[in-house]
């Protein structure tokens, strides 16, 4: 049986290109971060040979977490790395360089991860760094990694590594978009809450003016005084005043 190296390469390129085309909707979507990164991970798993599991790690300070995966079982490989503070996904994020390894050859380097991989039947890993610029209210740069696990010891060659770099671009853009979307939602929620609070405070001022003959400024000063004296939010004091109207009058 003859082999066709050129045909194989073209086939791998075609699979990756098709996978990337399927991600077009991700960049325009308004979805939570985990939903978007999950789609990126699932697509990467379909695009690369021998990619049995894919996860996306995000590191913030001393904390690392999986923010996307194609299958739940990959969490059993990510978590030992987070707990022990070492492993290919953390090394890729920390040093901002790709890591391609046969797990048996690196079991002394990452013993906790190697043990988890052995239990899962995983023999090879490819982790590529992610860098996400801070934006809006969060100015800190995020780093992370795109991690690919395989049951095949000989999985992942330099060509696979080059192809997966395309998916790091997709993952980075997905995270940026999802963070912007979440930031916008948080701002809207805060504005809505501020409007509700303002309405309740104005109503409470009206109650105090009606009950005690306060001016508008005096009523507001009374609410502020109660808030400071009791160390309770002004909005909560206003709600208490409004709630007192519903209490039955006792003789």
Fraction of residues in H or I helices: 55-70%
- The helix/strand series, from N terminus to C terminus, equals HHHEEHHEHEEHHH
Q: What is the total domain count?
A: 2
Helical segment count: 9
**SS-based structural class?**
alpha+beta
Distance between the termini: 101 Å
The shape, in one word, is elongated
Explain how this protein is built.
The chain is an alpha+beta fold. It folds into two domains: 175 residues, Beta-Lactamase (2-Layer Sandwich); 59 residues, Arc Repressor Mutant, subunit A, CATH 1.10.10. It contains nine helices and five strands, in the order αααββααβαββααα. The chain has a five-stranded antiparallel β-sheet with strand order 2-1-5-4-3, with helices on both faces. Helix 3 packs antiparallel against helix 7, helix 4 packs antiparallel against helix 6 and helix 8 packs across helix 9. The N and C termini lie far apart (101 Å).
């Amino acid at each position: 049986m003859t082999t066709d190296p050129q045909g194989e390469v073209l086939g791998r390129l075609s699979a990756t290109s098709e996978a990337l085309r399927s991600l077009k909707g991700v960049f325009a979507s308004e979805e939570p971060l985990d939903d978007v990164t999950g789609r990126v991970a699932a697509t990467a798993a379909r695009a690369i040979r021998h990619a049995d599991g894919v996860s996306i790690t995000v590191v913030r300070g001393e904390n690392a977490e999986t923010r996307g995966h194609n299958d739940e079982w990959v969490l059993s490989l990510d978590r030992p790395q987070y707990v022990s503070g070492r492993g290919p996904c953390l090394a890729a994020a920390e040093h901002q360089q790709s890591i391609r390894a046969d797990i048996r050859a690196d079991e002394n380097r990452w013993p906790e991860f190697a043990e988890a991989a052995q239990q899962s039947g995983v023999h090879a890993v490819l982790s590529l760094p992610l860098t996400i610029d801070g934006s809006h209210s969060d100015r800190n740069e995020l780093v992370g990694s795109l991690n690919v696990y395989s049951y095949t010891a000989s999985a992942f060659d330099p060509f696979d590594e080059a192809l997966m770099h395309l998916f790091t671009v997709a993952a980075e853009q997905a995270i940026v978009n999802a963070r912007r979307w979440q930031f916008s939602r948080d701002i809207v929620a805060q504005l809505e809450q501020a409007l509700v609070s303002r309405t309740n405070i104005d109503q409470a001022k009206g109650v105090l003016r009606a009950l005690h003959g306060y001016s508008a400024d005096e009523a507001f000063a009374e609410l502020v005084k109660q808030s400071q004296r009791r160390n309770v939010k002004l909005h909560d004091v206003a709600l208490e005043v409004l709630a007192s109207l519903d209490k039955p009058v006792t003789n």
